[in-house]
Design a protein that fits this description.
By secondary structure, the chain is of the alpha/beta class. The protein has 19 helices and 14 strands. The protein is about 50% helix and about 15% strand. The strands form five sheets. The protein has a six-stranded mixed sheet with strand order 5-4-3-6-7-8. Strands 1-2 form a two-stranded antiparallel sheet. Strands 9-10 form a two-stranded antiparallel ribbon.
């Protein structure tokens, strides 16, 4: 695999990040599992930078009208022609429309926006030149006074630079507090890993927290300046508790198969996986050791990032709240029927796999008699004609009304309205754990589990009695992750009610 260019692994082109996570956080290299702090994913920087468009669209016309008022109050005469559109302030409005096209420069590093103050000033001058040109072409060259234009230009430049300065201060403040620092881990042998850690710290300017260096071979850390934090599987366990933004892999092994093996383990985490290789210094370079740096290649991205994740979160919260309020009377009636038919709690709780391969407690209406341990563990799936299922429970399972309490999971942030269905932690198919049947099964945990999903609208409901049924569901889940879009989510939500009516064969 060649270095120096971006690649996607396993057909995953763009990826996935949950912007906000309340996960364990420490400024030290080794995070404490018990520490909990507010954490923002790196995507927040891009969103904050994109909001400069809103700032410019508001600031440019605002400074235009303000400078117009100042000039008018000083001269006590109208500085505009009698043309009604110009009299109503059309130049500031035209400038507001042009501002995003001329001033906006998309960057993932908002801190650099203020350092390009000269470029921003030139863009403002260009914007006003374009505005004057449009005025001349429309035959209204005398509609704007020189006093107004000069004052407007100066105030507009000051406003745009102020917005970028505030952005830099905001992002820098969050970084210093540890809220916006990149969370990373390194996979590799001791000597190279130590050099990579130093290179990452140097390039980031100290804005990165490295959780540790992980490798399966302890003997490779003999002469290294860094300590081995654990195996690659230990890293996965850490990633469940301390959300990682990036995993840097260096010297995974002597062959491509070793890299594939490492990736197959790490693919359960919602983190960007980057391969690193030591860049060779130029021949005769006397400062070879000091100048060494690493080539980087992105192997795996996060499935949902930036605005996509923000919009999906808003969709979950808004639609989830609406659906929860609308379903409340039905849920109360179902609770009454369950309590009337059999003793035991109304709500059934069960540990299931969630986002980032973590575990959470799912909520469902109880559909079985409260008596067996395998009901709570999920090790034994429901079978056709299962005597454990109550009469009310059989109807609830057929109609999927037993899933309604999961709207609470959605509001908690543990689930999404749309995503791969969460499976019980101990779930077995044909007597084997799901992860033993499907290689890379945990890849479906890189997104939040959903109330419904692509597999469900394609007929994959109910128990998985055979391994081919599990394979089919995982294929749909991976297809959803790789092809995610907000429109796909809306399509699945619209189709779900009709599929519940016509696809009941495997729901029992």
């Amino acid at each position: 695999m060649e270095l120096g260019q971006e690649q996607a692994w396993s057909n995953s082109n763009s990826s996935f990040a949950y912007l906000i996570g309340a996960e364990a956080h420490q400024r030290s290299a080794k995070p404490s599992p018990g520490a909990r702090a507010f954490h923002l994913r790196p995507d927040y920087k891009q969103i904050a930078s994109d909001l400069l468009v809103v700032w410019d669209v508001l600031a440019i016309p605002a400074t235009g009208f303000l400078s117009l008022a100042l000039v008018w109050s000083a001269t006590q005469t109208s500085v505009l022609s009698l043309h009604p559109l110009v009299e109503r302030g059309s130049p500031p409005l035209v400038a507001a429309l042009l501002a995003p096209l001329v001033l906006y420069e998309r960057t993932r590093e908002p801190e650099a926006a203020y350092s390009r103050a000269g470029a921003t000033t030139l863009r403002c001058v260009g914007l006003f030149g374009l505005l004057v040109g449009i005025t001349m072409l429309t035959g209204k060259a005398g509609a704007i006074s020189l006093q107004w234009l000069s004052l407007w230009l100066v105030s507009a430049v000051a406003a745009t630079l102020a917005g970028r300065s505030l952005l830099r201060i905001h992002v820098s403040g969050l970084t210093k507090k540890g809220i916006l620092r990149e969370r990373a881990a390194v996979v590799g042998s001791g000597l190279l890993a130590g050099r990579l850690v130093a290179d990452l710290q140097r390039r980031s300017g100290g804005s990165i927290d490295i959780a540790g260096v992980f490798h399966d071979d302890p003997s490779s850390f003999g002469d290294s300046s860094v300590e081995r934090a654990g195996t690659v599987r230990d890293l996965v366990e850490l990633g469940r508790r301390w959300t990682l933004d990036s995993i840097y892999v260096v010297d995974a092994g002597d062959c491509e198969a070793s890299l594939e093996r490492v990736l197959s383990v790490l693919m359960s985490l919602d983190a960007e996986i980057i391969a690193c290789a030591l860049q060779q210094a130029a021949a005769g370079d006397k400062h070879r050791n000091a100048s060494q740096s690493f080539h980087r290649v992105r192997l795996v991205g996060r499935p949902i990032v930036g605005w996509g994740m923000l919009l999906k979160t808003i969709q979950d919260k808004v639609l989830g709240l609406i659906l929860l309020i609308a379903a409340l009377p039905v849920m109360l009636f179902i609770a009454f029927l369950i309590r009337r038919e059999s003793p035991g709690p109304v709500i059934f709780r069960q540990k299931r796999h969630g986002w980032n391969n973590s575990e959470f407690e799912i909520l469902k209406f109880r559909t079985m008699r409260w008596q067996s341990e395998d009901h709570a563990s999920g090790a034994r799936q429901t079978s056709r004609g299962d005597p454990r299922v109550t009469r009310v429970g059989r109807f609830l399972r057929k109609t999927s009304l037993d899933e309604l309490p999961q709207l609470i999971n959605v509001m908690r942030g543990e689930m999404s309205l749309v995503g791969p269905r969460p499976h019980p932690v101990a779930m077995r198919t044909a007597g084997r754990l799901n992860s033993e049947i499907v290689p890379g099964y945990a890849c479906r945990h890189r997104v939040k589990p959903g109330l419904t999903g692509l597999a469900q609208i394609n007929g994959c409901r109910g128990a998985t009695e055979h391994s081919y049924q599990l394979w089919k569901r995982v294929e749909y889940d991976i297809a959803y992750i790789n092809g995610w879009s907000l429109l796909l989510d809306l399509k699945i939500l619209v189709l779900t009610p009709t599929r519940l009516v016509f696809c009941r064969d495997n729901a029992f």
